[in-house]
């Protein structure tokens, strides 16, 4: 097994989800910033070597990509019609992943420690027949939207009717290797209190 620090994402694409309504936050989560770096930038930089990197979200994110200097390195797409839930977003994202790519790293854009989580997953060599490597929290709950999936079974799982269906229903039956990680690594930024605890704020402050 490689250590997380040594792991690289070879023959891997990345799909980053940033299409939610951010209802609990009351503002777009991806734009929250800490030390001059946004949550979106953290997510997009968490997958070194991944090609392509696909961002799923509204067209307005193109301005964020341009501002971060990532416009030419990240493919932006969205489910059609929009608002179909995370699995509909993943289905749109997987369409931008070329045939022949072996692995796909899934991420949401609200994980402050996304690079550490991705490195931990990439360091694990799954057993033969496993379709995914997933992190689990202290309660054993699998993080289905923050996992490393083999592209072929992921594509097959997303080929059916996925609009408004939960990740557990669409992806939960895939054979997987589960990796327990500390809750602090998996803590997302879902509301203003969580953002403040993690040191994030809107660009203009609260």
UniProtKB/TrEMBL annotation:
User: SUPFAM superfamilies given for it?
Assistant: Nucleotide-diphospho-sugar transferases
| Molecular function GO terms recorded | nucleotidyltransferase activity
Domain named MobA-like NTP transferase is located at: 14-172
The record's section on Gene3D superfamilies has: Spore Coat Polysaccharide Biosynthesis Protein SpsA, Chain A
| InterPro entries from the UniProt entry | MobA-like_NTP_Trfase, Nucleotide-diphossugar_trans
Q: Which domain of life is it from?
A: Bacteria
Name of the protein:
Molybdopterin-guanine dinucleotide biosynthesis protein A
Q: What organism is the protein native to?
A: Kytococcus aerolatus
């Amino acid at each position: 097994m490689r250590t997380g620090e040594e792991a690289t994402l070879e023959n891997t694409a990345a799909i980053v989800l940033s299409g939610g309504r951010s209802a609990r936050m009351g503002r777009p989560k991806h734009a929250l910033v800490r030390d001059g770096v946004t949550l979106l930038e953290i997510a997009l930089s968490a997958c070194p070597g991944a090609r392509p990197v696909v961002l799923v979200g509204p067209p307005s994110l193109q301005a964020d990509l341009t501002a971060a200097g990532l416009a030419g390195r990240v493919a932006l797409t969205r489910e059609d019609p929009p608002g179909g839930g995370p699995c509909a977003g993943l289905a749109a994202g997987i369409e931008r992943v070329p045939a022949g790519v072996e692995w796909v790293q899934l991420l949401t854009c609200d994980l402050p420690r996304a690079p550490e989580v991705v490195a931990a997953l990439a360091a694990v060599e799954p057993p033969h027949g496993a379709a995914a490597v997933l992190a689990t929290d202290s309660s054993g709950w699998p993080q289905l939207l923050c996992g490393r999936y083999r592209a072929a079974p992921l594509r097959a799982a997303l080929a059916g009717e996925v609009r408004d269906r939960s990740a557990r229903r669409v992806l939960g039956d895939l054979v997987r290797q589960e990796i327990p990680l500390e809750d602090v690594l998996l803590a997302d930024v879902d509301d203003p209190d969580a953002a403040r605890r993690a040191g994030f704020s809107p660009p203009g402050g609260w």
